[in-house]
Amino acid sequence: MRHTLTSLSMMIALVLFAAVAAAAAQNKTTLPKTDINPQQFRVIYEWNAIDFEWTSPEDREAYLNTSQYIPQNVLISGINFYGENLFLTMPRMLAGVPATLATIPIQQVNTAPKLKPFPSWADNAIGNCNALQFVQNIEIDRNGIMWILDNGRVGTLTQNPDPKCPPSIVLIDLKSEKLEMERIPFPPETVNPNTTYLNDLVVDNRDGDYAYITDNSAVDPGIIVFRRSDKRSWKLRDGKSMRAANDATFFRINGTTVNLPVNIDGIALGPQYVTEDGKVDRKIYYSPLASFHLYAINASVLQNESLAPWGDGALQPYVIDLGTKASQTDGMKMDSAGNLYYGLLGIASIAEWNSTLDFHVGQRTIARDSNYIQWVDRFTFDDKGNVYVIINRLYNFVKNQLSLDEVNYRILRSHTGSKSYVFGEDVTPVMKPAYDAATVPTLGASLLALALAHLLA
């Protein structure tokens, strides 16, 4: 009898151990963890006003005389890296912006370099719908393809914006010497050319190459999904998480107060991970400009085109409210290890969150300076472990209070050892065995009950 009890005890212990181990395996995250210690952010470029590499001094004078170039109306918004260059975007919110996409060298020559229009001056000609009209942001994927958001409509801060050209996504293969632009206009049933504002995007180089785009339209905000393989696009909406929050529309920065009830704005794409059913997915993170919350949704949900016709609310069951930030955020960017970089506009700060940790406890401020960090806009990473951020004093720009006697635009840099999310690790789907981790606890419980029944018999 004692021998039987000992055997049963050992059996019970083994079953309990197997059940606990299986449950732990089921809950274990597959996202990589990393600890970073960013060095101090330093100013590498700064400008009072933006100037360009003109074909001649006479050209510059002609642009000035005809108001095709109004220095105080040129605002740097987006930034990206490729090769030896930083790419900068200048949205044509006002008149007098001669080029909407340009480059500067990543190696410093001076602290206020002139911008070189990209791909050329002709490719930035205003009014030519084959050229770039209004570029808010770009992304460059792991294959060297530049994805450009061209709103088409110019003068968005004027009384009469011009919607002559259709909103489009434009692709350029940066590995090609020709730098030809492939333009794909969005269909009007997906994007309203009179109200859309294509703000930011992330690129997912899986299953046909997807772009997830924030449209912070004042009347119809949402996320536009574009699939490159067949050039299809659709739009998904969720009023609760994508519209401006009433308690977050006012911004007070360096004594200036501005009311900006702006909808969904920044967006970031997390690393690949294996889901409980063995498939590969990614998290998409986003926030309205006028919001203190960060939201997340699975890429697989956004790729489900059948949800688009359901309109506002179709995404609500799938949206995760991760929690609140200390202030509102404009741009954000994820690195390849799952660290999210974002600004905290009201407290002149740059923050970082390790997305493997709970958002409530995993956030930390990595830079704060009210003199140099005045409206954090967009981020990018180079190939040497540096992160770059655009500071652009947007609050002064929208109120027409820019002074050309002051520094209005800065690019800051910090070494973090990071690289862009586009170079994140590819994850392989898992073929689930007949008895997988999800069924072992149930099986273990059954065996345990059987053993106890035998013991008590």
TrEMBL record:
Protein localization: Secreted
Keywords, comma-separated and alphabetical: Secreted, Signal
Family matches, as Gene3D superfamilies: TolB, C-terminal domain (2.120.10.30)
Pfam families per record: MRJP
InterPro entries in the cross-refs: 6-blade_b-propeller_TolB-like, MRJP/yellow-related
Record's GO cellular component terms: extracellular region
Secretion signal span: 1-25
Family according to the record: Belongs to the major royal jelly protein family.
The protein's name: Protein yellow-like
Encoding gene, per UniProt annotation: LOC114240630
